Amino acid sequence: MYLTKTQERMLAGEFGEASSKAMEILVALGKIYGAPRLVRCTSAQISGVSYKNIGDAGADFLWDLAQKGARVRIPSYINPAGMDLNRFEEMRLDHKFIEGQNRILQAYRKMGVNLSLTCAPYQIGVEPHLGEHVAWAESSAVIFANSVLGAMTNRESGVSALCSAITGYTPYYGYHLTSNRVATLLVRVDAELTDPVDYAVLGSYVGRVAGERVVAFRGINPSREDLKALGAALASTGAVALFFVEDVTPEWRLSDKPEVADVSQADLKKEADKLGGSAPSAEVITIGCPHASIEEIGRLARILTNRKLTKPLYVYTSRQVKSQADQLGYTKIIEDAGGKIYCDTCMVVSPIDRMGVSSIEVASAKAAYYSPMMSHVNVRLAPLEKIILEASEAV
Question: What are the residue boundaries of the Phosphomevalonate dehydratase large subunit-like domain, all occurrences included (predicted)?
Fold first, then answer.
């Protein structure tokens, strides 16, 4: 594996112990996957942030790096934490959890990482361009960057993304090579898709079929919100990191002899039922997996105008998007109706079961897939408007 003089010096420890360790990890990863060299990356997006997920062992690892002088060399962002940093008292968290979460965030801050605390950095202005190399880890962010923006990233681990943040490099293999950005599965869709949740269900169904393959879709015309829902689901039930939509996404490359899969309305109905589409009404509504965009919050506010909720509603988003919602008056409408907007966290990485919640309603296939496993709650999946209208009254 070829290293430049600067990279060799970094590996040898001339830039500090932490940089040397990070370079060692990246070189080892590159050798495993046959990377001929490293490539500069312009940003890193790091998973492994919630204390619920990484615990004391993860916190110790991060602090060890920080104390060894680790500092990021490129703009670097992190995934949601396990709590809202300003409203954690409402989340019924014990002292150990709060202390552990704060320790993790202090380590990242010491390393110079932007405490963005969102799984959707593209919603806060972090939008790499077509062909730009990045090192992102959160699965829904990776697939959005690759597919919708046309940037180039592998599906990094939290550790490898952090190493790229510290060094400014990532191994040159996988989806950093145009030759690997070719779909080998063509999905022909013959179904009516009218809501982002329909695209989420499509992604969930195809993810189970696709596994790790690149997918090309024909016969759909998704919006940006639809693409977000589609990608998040593909990356959840499968390990898809790149998809194309004919005449929609910036790239379209299809292998000469792709496998073809046809998807019908009946297929999507079965998948929706598997995700909780026919489950009974749940006790709490949770929106924002991936984090709610300003468009999604605006849509929610319009539905809730002159209405009052009859059950709790928790909306999860980034602090930057929440600020936009405040300025546009969306937050007031949602709170006047009885809802709450939480920042920095989500229903999957926060211990929502500790809040006394045993069942949730969601408009996200990703949330429907992960919440039963990670949060031990039952799930009902339905379109946003249906959920809200059923759980509110006109005033």
Answer: 1-388
